[in-house]
Amino acid sequence: MNDRYVAILSGDNVALGSAELRALLRIFNQGSVAQPISRRMMVFEASDEVAGEIIRRAGYIKSIVRPIISERSGEVCESSLLIDNVQEVVHSPVVIRAEKLGVPRIDQNSRTIEKNVFDVLSRAIPDLRISYEFPSTIIKIYVEGGLIIGGILIGEKDARSLEMRRPGKRPFTHPSAIHPKLARCMVNLTGARRNGCVLDPFMGTGSIPIEASLMGYTSIGVELKSWICFGGAKNIRLLGDYSRSHIVVGDSRTLMFGRRFVDGVATDPPYGRSTTILGGELSRMLEAVFAQLLEIVKKDARIVMALPEGTPFIDRLDSIGLRIEERLKERVHSSLIREIIVCSIAALF
Prior knowledge:
CATH topology of the largest domain: Rossmann fold
Shape: elongated
Radius of gyration: 22 Å
Structural class: alpha/beta
Oligomer: single chain
Strand order of the largest sheet: 2-3-1-4-7-6-5
Largest sheet: 7 strands, mixed
């Protein structure tokens, strides 16, 4: 049985979080369409198990709650309750935490909002108590603009774990290595079925294979330069699930995998060496790699790549049989914006 949930998207890239949530709902075959109710909040339907899996896997989703309170007037009251039998889902003792997303239009501090919510709940649940150390139910209140959403916390992004796996914390690193949260998001955007196979034909330091393996996928990483490949393998052994990982020193233009073997491709190709390479040699190399991928990915697979905004290769994707489904952006720094390109297969050979 499905219930209604609200996902709180990460503030650093709302568009990626929204796309990631939609992709995860497709992966778990929920048949639900996530709808925005504010800039950073989206409502969707799923089972309890799937809601928990979504927050465990996501990179750009901050938290998920099962909503019990919704209010747009600025003052939480009995009519704000979304369910009649709140005592069946809220178990004492509780802890209530309010958080403002951006600049709200509600002139109340977090403590006042928390107290108002407790007062409303305690009238419905007379023996309700607060426990900051050992709560049975954690209630999170989010305020954005004029909207207040309160719900039972299903889960929060493990920001500490992601931070421990960021490029600067790895034994082998490179300035262009992507952050774990982007790697996770890209794996999710492939739409690869659970326990499937995800390929990164430009493995580098292993950002994508690390996250794919931790998410339960069989990950395959291919890297042309042996010294980079060995460094990436060291990272995967330390930070990923090495038992799910396959590492290949080789040229991705001559992959020897079987037809329709891979469930999804996520990759961050090399770039930034020079404008000449971006416009010429690198684009030709990318064309050769992605043309071959059409032979080994399954027909419903998605190919997700991160490239600098304006890379000429992006405009030639249709010529090699790829159809762009989504174009998303991530600002790396003031002079570099990445485009996250999600492609489906337009032509099968």
